[in-house]
Specification:
66 residues, 1 helix, alpha+beta, 36% helix, two-stranded antiparallel sheet, elongated, single chain
Length: 66
Amino acid sequence: MLSFRKVFTHAALSLLLASPMLAVAEEKPAPPPVQAVAAAPVLDGVALQGIVAETMNSSGYTYLLL
């Protein structure tokens, strides 16, 4: 059976070991913001023409390589 002293010692050591890691983690600078990439043009209603070279089914969508 665990005694109060063992539980208290374990908790105290855990806090002592974790606190320096938290201090180091707080000192890291934030990463630079990511620049937005231009969106691909929307081709609703435009007929495409070509030879299907490859298809891939993923998450309910089918991707074509023309």
